[in-house]
Write a structure and sequence with these properties.
The chain is α/β, with parallel strands linked by helices. It contains 11 helices and 15 strands. The strands form 3 sheets. Strands 5-4-6-8-1-9-15-14-10-11 form a 10-stranded mixed β-sheet, sandwiched between helices. The chain has a 3-stranded mixed β-sheet with strand order 2-3-7. Strands 12-13 form a two-stranded antiparallel ribbon. Helix 2 crosses helix 4. The longest helix has 17 residues.
Length: 424
């Protein structure tokens, strides 16, 4: 049996496996290839319970759910997790699974099953009772059971910040020595209750051409579109990755979470909390503003978010902001809510790996108040070695994660000399 040694406290944590499924790809490679080429998975939604056909625009994932009655979000999480483990070259039978953590974000539970139990006429699950999957931590518990992971387990439900928060939770567990590895990420589906709530808030985009509905940083933006999908990562210490001769996609250099004590759905218009978030993340990672070459923005396409986010980035990075490419993937794959942070972090990692910033779709008429290079319409080659991923969630949850490009495959001779950066 392969038993990892207890890691040094504060040792750098790296990503060695990525799994992904979205509206534009069945795996990480397909998703990244489609996003970088400017593909869109957005279309009119049909067949969603209690929502009239074609009333809602979104970016759904079409899959056959293998277990009758199982929540679609569980199926998506399983697909991404299987790919991430295989991609990392993890051999679970050869390691101590009691030191393997699982950090998977919360999700909507089985509301259909519960509705039927209280007398509302809905289709009842055939093979999976509602009480087996009504809790928001079902995906986390299911994946941990699937792979026999006995290490620390966490499941956060913090709206659009959930994905990044659980990834940072896993990083902390590894750095403080509680475990050697972690499966971390999130999954999301378009839930009728969420959809109805967002419609009431008037934050959903509408357009005669669904693929043109989501327009981040555009003067004519009108809201976001909901999306589906999942992204999962294998995280481990740098020394473990070197010992396994694993592929290192990126180092998670630093991460910061804070609460914006302003409003449940609105953001502080002066952008001070967001500016502080970015500045503090750079401080924790011992990174300069000039070091950042790419930012994957939250970029919802709402009037408020894009403006506040642009101001915050500008305030934190100063003159350096003009030299940074700022992308918004939601224009292509929709807003994955609980899974937005993890899927978009995966795309950020692949952007660093390949030196390419995918386009922000539908950015035909840039808002002059969003005065950043938001990669309109056509992707761009870049030489960035470091990047930031931002999440700005309802409830005032703000998260920023800084990553540095990894050395890739450790079969190359100079990787043993890879110098880890200062731990956050």
């Amino acid at each position: 049996m392969f038993l990892s040694s207890t890691p040094k406290i504060g040792e750098p944590v790296v990503i060695t496996g990525i799994g992904m499924i979205t509206s534009v790809g069945r795996n990480a490679a397909e998703t990244w290839g489609a996003v970088r080429l400017g593909a869109s998975g957005v279309r009119s939604i049909r067949g969603l319970p209690d929502i009239p056909d074609d009333l809602l625009i979104g970016a759904p994932v079409d899959i056959e759910i293998p277990v009758t009655g199982q929540l679609k979000v569980i199926a998506l999480a399983r697909i991404a997790a299987q790919e991430a483990i295989a991609d990392a070259g993890i051999k679970l039978d050869e390691m101590d699974r009691d030191r393997f953590a699982c950090a998977i974000s919360g999700h909507m539970g089985d509301t259909d099953g519960i509705a039927k139990n209280i007398g509302i006429n809905r289709k009842s699950p055939d093979d999976v009772p509602s009480w087996h999957q009504w809790m928001p931590n079902t995906a986390c518990a299911t994946l941990a059971a699937d792979y026999g992971l006995g290490g620390p387990r966490s499941c956060h439900s913090t709206a659009c910040a959930s994905g990044l928060i659980d990834i940072l939770s896993a990083v902390r567990r590894i750095r403080d020595g509680q475990c050697d590895y972690a499966l971390a990420g999130s999954a999301e589906t378009i839930n009728p209750l969420f959809a109805a709530g967002f419609r009431q808030l008037r934050v959903l985009a509408e357009h005669s051409d669904p693929s043109r509905a989501c327009r981040p940083f555009d003067r004519d933006r009108s809201g976001f579109v909901m999306g589906e999908g999942s992204a999962m990562f294998i995280l481990e210490t740098l020394s473990s990755a070197i010992a396994r001769r694993a592929t290192i996609y990126a180092e998670i250099t630093a991460g910061t979470m804070l609460g914006e004590a302003y409003h449940v759905t609105s953001m502080a218009q002066d952008s001070k909390p967001l500016s502080y978030l970015i500045t503090e993340t750079l401080r924790r990672g011992d990174m300069s503003t000039e070091e950042i070459g790419y930012i994957n923005a939250h970029g919802t396409g709402t009037l408020q978010n894009d403006l506040v986010e642009s101001r915050g980035i500008r305030a934190a990075l100063g003159n350096s902001a003009s030299d940074i490419l700022v992308g918004a993937n939601k224009s292509s794959i929709g807003h994955l809510v609980n899974a937005a942070g993890s899927v978009e972090l995966g795309l950020t990692v692949l952007s660093l790996r390949d030196g390419y910033a995918p386009p922000t779709l539908n950015l035909n008429n840039p808002d002059p108040e969003c005065d950043l290079d938001c990669v309109p319409l056509v992707g761009r080659i870049h030489r960035a070695e470091s990047a930031l991923k931002l999440s700005c969630a309802f409830g005032g949850h703000l998260v920023c994660v800084a990553i540095r490009k990894g050395p890739g495959s450790l079969s190359q001779p100079d990787y043993a000399d890879h110098a880890p950066s200062k731990a956050a």
